[in-house]
Design brief:
Blueprint: H1 2-7, H2 11-33, E1 43-44, H3 47-62, E2 66-67, E3 87-88, E4 104-105, H4 121-153
Antiparallel strand pairs: 1-4, 2-3
């Protein structure tokens, strides 16, 4: 029951955002650590791909739930049988496959240096800041939704 309550909120989407930003922060920190390494190529996650999957998940959630069965619901359906009135909605986590969280070589921010590195410490610092802010937002919003659910459960609304 609690799972269905959580799935009906934006928590699953925010969970994916928090996971993505956590993984991206690790990769960006690795880029900063290797800023002076010869022939090191900056890496990053595919942000555009993640954003398109997030948009798809939002659109999927906005669609009406589909019944598990094509049969009309009988007047007194038995639980777990076709037509029992239960509805299904695809799991949001299934959209975000592991390849979304795999690092790829980042496009160069500027010219490649003579040592073969495509670094830009300013761009990396800016991306880390933006990513950290997005992660903080996702976590704060999850906390706010959990606090609201806790109030509802304890009937203090």
């Amino acid at each position: 029951m609690i799972n269905s309550i959580l799935q009906s909120t934006t928590v699953p989407l925010l969970e994916q955002v928090a996971s993505f930003t956590e993984r991206r922060q690790e990769i960006l920190a690795g880029n900063m650590a290797n800023i002076n390494t010869d022939d090191y190529r900056m890496r990053d996650l595919d942000v555009k791909k993640f954003q398109s999957l997030l948009q798809e998940a939002i659109e999927l959630r906005s669609q009406p739930k589909q019944s598990q069965s094509q049969y009309p619901m009988p007047p007194f359906p038995a639980p777990g049988f076709p037509g029992d009135g239960q509805t299904t909605q695809p799991d949001i986590a299934d959209l975000f496959t592991p390849d979304v969280f795999e690092a790829v070589q980042a496009p160069p921010y500027n010219l490649t240096f003579q040592d073969g590195n495509n670094r830009s410490i300013e761009e990396e610092a800016m991306e880390m800041t933006k990513n950290g802010m997005l992660q903080s937002y996702a976590i704060e919003f999850i906390n706010a939704q959990m606090a609201l659910l806790q109030q509802v459960i304890s009937e203090r609304v």
